[in-house]
Design goal:
By secondary structure, the chain is an alpha/beta fold. It contains 4 helices and 7 strands; from the N terminus they run H-H-E-E-E-E-H-E-H-E-E.
Length: 203
């Protein structure tokens, strides 16, 4: 009788052990299944974002690098403005240029792709800027209305007086008198009351 009782207890212990092992295995399997579901859900969301116009981080980083090395664009307005109406006429993402931002146009790109009537173009522009057209330009100087190119700025572009001056620049149209080493820009002053085009550059 005692042996049977002992065997029965041993069988009960074995059964309990098996049940514990089975319960632990089920818990592990459930945890693994939940992890797989979560990973699959994240992957599905990622694909949906990409299909809706999102970009993979690597692609976005590459595009950011390309955009940061692309040349700045610039243009000359197609309409003239008086000296007090120059700083807010450039189209979105552009601003009135300082001459120092335009010193080397070979490193810039003329924005011929803007909306028609925005940028000044000539018959032989191609992909480049027009020559011979004067445009207002910032000087980097203190407020001044004197008749001196590089200083005159229509009192920091607030004056439209016929007795005050601002600085204007143009790409030279006369290549003979300028010679083979011609200057990049022809510079002069004009009255703040004159309607002159405006040089703009990308922000």
């Amino acid at each position: 009788m005692e042996e049977k009782v002992f065997e029965q207890k041993e069988q009960e212990k074995t059964l309990v052990s098996n049940i514990n092992l089975t319960t632990g295995l089920v818990a592990v399997l459930i945890a693994a299944l939940l992890i797989m579901v979560f990973v699959g859900y994240q992957a599905l969301n990622y694909r949906h974002a990409a299909a809706a116009g999102g970009r993979a981080p690597a692609v976005a980083a590459l595009q950011m690098e390309v955009s940061s090395t692309a040349p700045l664009r610039y243009y000359l307005t197609s309409l003239g403005h008086t000296g007090n109406d120059t700083t807010n006429v450039c189209t979105d993402t552009f601003h009135m240029a300082a001459i120092w931002e335009l010193m080397d146009v070979s490193n810039l790109e003329y924005a011929v792709d803007l909306a028609p009537g925005t940028a000044r173009v000539r018959d032989d522009n191609g992909e480049g800027p027009p020559s011979g057209d004067l445009g207002w330009v910032r000087t980097g100087q203190a407020a001044s209305t004197v008749n001196t190119a590089g200083q005159a700025n229509c009192d920091v572009w607030t004056s439209d007086s016929s007795g005050e001056y601002g600085t204007v620049i143009a790409l030279p149209p006369d290549w003979i008198n300028n010679g083979p080493n011609m200057s990049i820009w022809s510079v002069q002053t004009t009255f703040c009351s004159d309607y002159i085009l405006v040089w703009c550059i990308e922000d």
